[in-house]
Amino acid sequence: MSIFKFIKNLFVTTAPVLPQWQPQWSQYLNGHVSFYRTLNQQDKLIFEQRANLFLHTTNVEAGDQVDVTQDDRLLVAASAIIPVWGFPNWHYFNLKSVFLLR
Question: What are the structural domains of the chain?
Answer without folding.
Answer: 20-100 (1.10.472.150)
